[in-house]
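[recover] target loaded
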């Protein structure tokens, strides 16, 4: 896990920008830093920085820096710069320094992430005659690209974003992993210079940066709580490479323009073969793939920890590792990290205790409170780059902070399971829809017998969809706009300063017209997983920790998407395949849970009873910082109504608070 930086231009670049881009994300890689520059005449310059180990300057490596950045006065001009910050996870020696090149110095890479099956790919390349000097996955990625070109991506199991410069062809290849676990943003400056990096804040220190609001994305966030659902960001002109996409820049004909989007290729296109076996066979296959994924994700030369919420996903990871330890297949120390609440109504600790009492593990708990939340807020806004949606992001920040204090550098989490294992309730609605469409009245009766009145909302949703084919373009927006809460939000904003198209951001996707596979891919690539992955990346990297997500091994995801819907969502339980596959591994009470909460806060209690004035003060500050977008009197009256119970509690108040804080922190202009 690391941080990457890059600059590309037709005209000479300001090389000092690369140093500043790297420095502002030092926390992503405090162990090492490096810089590579090239020009159209194929001249190159390799430099180190203040965090570059001194021993590397004399190392017999083709990518060893020749001098420190502040010691050189280059008279050459360069059109390309690659920067890197290293968090040492595999092969802790200086051999893992980046940017890295091959022996011919023709291919150069800066890379963030992990390719977990690098050992197997390395053996394949060695059989073809490749030699390796390090124990890193970086060297394997570079050699794989040399051997197979872009097709190497299909061999990788892992999370990654990287840039590879090929000197003889004068091209730059940018790529992001299948599910966008690792970030990659870009921006074209007013001088038509392309900048790219792991975080948006890297652009704020570059020549020509002037933060401007993307009004439509601000609308999506304030009204619907949506971020990360398109390649656009809340910063106008800042984009992200989409999950599973790549972009090839040819220096011979490149031309950039401010506000320009890169041409992207969708390299990840899974080809699914429908599984025809029994449910029992599916359980066995899932368990094998899940266990294999966990083993790969435990490959590390530094201490590994685990998040534990007490729910099915994180408990499955922890209990599987414990089982492998007891069978002497693994020897991984188990140290779990959890967020719990002192209020029993919002605490999951009893479920965490069920898990930890059945395994051999050390457990660390953090307890959220309002004073810590308020104190952490400026740091969290800075690290997140864009506003977030709920206090769950704050809890994650605290959990990784605790892991860092315990010298943990890698953490396995349960993120990503809900989107393909039926964790959000949508799969159940799709299954009911199929039963209704196929007139399987007996099966519907069984469903009703099991769920009773709880099934009625699903039947209504299915009937309504069949009647009007919801959403017709714009219909979702028109329906939502009639809600009292929506009208209330409209009254809180000044449309002199916030201009947008009145459109629901997900209007173009009709979930009921697609099967569970299409819906699963939408949840994985569009909403909601991308925002959760941003939280995971920023919270972990803020504490120089690598977060790993074993559920997002693409082989596991693709297998589950090949299954019949009824294998994933059962008659009386969601996540049926995961639950049944964990029989004998999970404690029975965890396996059969139906009320999982995850990491949560007693937010309504905080706002309405214990700390209303503190939150009101935050809102007042945010109003002042919003450049006139939030109406003062209306917003404060709304908050007062929220506190006294005159209107139903919702989380709009928090989005308004974060929006103003974000505008102030990044000096965003309307």
């Amino acid at each position: 896990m690391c941080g990457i930086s890059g600059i590309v231009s037709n005209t000479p670049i300001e090389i000092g920008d690369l140093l500043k881009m790297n420095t502002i994300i030092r926390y992503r890689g405090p162990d090492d830093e490096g810089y590579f520059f090239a020009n159209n005449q194929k001249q190159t310059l390799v430099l180190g920085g203040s965090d570059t180990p001194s021993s590397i300057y004399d190392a017999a490596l083709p990518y060893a820096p020749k001098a420190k950045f502040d010691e050189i006065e280059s008279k050459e001009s360069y059109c390309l710069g690659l920067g890197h910050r290293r968090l040492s996870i595999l092969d802790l020696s200086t051999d893992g320094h980046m940017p890295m090149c091959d022996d011919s110095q023709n291919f150069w890479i800066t890379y963030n992430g992990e390719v977990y099956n690098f050992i197997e790919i390395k053996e394949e390349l060695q059989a073809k005659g490749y030699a390796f000097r390090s124990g890193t996955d970086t060297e394997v990625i570079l050699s794989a690209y040399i051997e197979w070109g872009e097709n190497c991506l299909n061999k990788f199991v892992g999370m990654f974003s990287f840039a590879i410069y090929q000197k003889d062809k004068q091209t730059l290849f940018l790529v992001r992993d299948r599910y966008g676990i690792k970030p990659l943003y870009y921006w074209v400056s007013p001088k038509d210079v392309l900048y790219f990096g792991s975080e948006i804040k890297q652009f704020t220190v570059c020549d020509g940066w002037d933060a401007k609001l993307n009004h439509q994305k601000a609308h999506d966030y304030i009204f619907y709580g949506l971020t990360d659902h398109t390649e656009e960001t809340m910063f106008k002109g800042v984009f992200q490479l989409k999950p599973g996409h790549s972009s090839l820049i040819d220096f011979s004909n490149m031309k950039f323009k401010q506000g320009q989007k890169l041409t992207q290729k969708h390299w990840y296109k899974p080809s699914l073969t429908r599984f025809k076996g029994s449910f029992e066979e599916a359980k066995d296959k899932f368990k094998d793939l899940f266990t294999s994924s966990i083993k790969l994700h435990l490959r590390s030369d530094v201490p590994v920890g685990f998040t534990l919420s007490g729910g099915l996903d994180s408990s499955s990871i922890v209990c599987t590792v414990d089982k492998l330890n007891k069978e002497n297949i693994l020897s991984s120390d188990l140290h779990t990290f959890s967020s719990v609440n002192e209020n029993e109504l919002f605490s999951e600790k009893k479920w965490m205790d069920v898990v930890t009492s059945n395994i051999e593990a050390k457990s660390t708990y953090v307890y959220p409170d309002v004073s810590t939340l308020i104190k952490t807020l400026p740091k969290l806004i800075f690290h997140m780059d864009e506003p977030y949606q709920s206090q769950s992001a704050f809890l994650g920040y605290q959990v990784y902070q605790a892991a860092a204090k315990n010298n943990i550098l890698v953490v396995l989490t349960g993120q990503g399971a809900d989107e393909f294992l039926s964790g959000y309730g949508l799969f159940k609605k799709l299954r009911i829809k199929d039963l209704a469409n196929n007139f399987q009245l007996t099966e519907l009766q069984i469903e009703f017998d099991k769920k009773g009145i709880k099934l009625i909302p699903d039947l209504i949703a299915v009937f309504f969809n069949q009647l009007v084919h919801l959403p017709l373009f714009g219909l979702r927006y028109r329906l939502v706009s009639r809600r009292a809460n929506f009208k209330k939000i409209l009254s809180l904003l000044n449309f002199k300063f916030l201009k947008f198209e009145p459109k629901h951001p997900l209007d173009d996707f009709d979930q009921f017209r697609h099967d569970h596979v299409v819906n699963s891919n939408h949840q994985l690539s569009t909403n909601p997983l991308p925002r959760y992955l941003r939280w995971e990346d920023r919270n972990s990297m803020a504490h120089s920790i690598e977060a790993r997500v074993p559920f997002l091994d693409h082989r596991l995801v693709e297998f589950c998407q090949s299954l019949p819907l009824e294998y994933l969502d059962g008659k009386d339980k969601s996540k049926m395949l995961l639950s049944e596959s964990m029989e004998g591994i999970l404690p029975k009470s965890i396996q059969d849970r139906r009320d999982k909460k995850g990491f949560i806060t007693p937010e309504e209690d905080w706002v309405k009873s214990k700390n209303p004035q503190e939150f009101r003060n935050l809102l007042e500050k945010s109003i002042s910082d919003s450049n006139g977008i939030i109406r003062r009197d209306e917003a404060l009256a709304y908050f007062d109504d929220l506190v006294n119970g005159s209107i139903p509690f919702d989380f709009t108040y928090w989005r308004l608070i974060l929006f103003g804080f974000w505008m102030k922190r990044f000096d965003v202009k309307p």
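[recover] notes: The radius of gyration is 25 Å.
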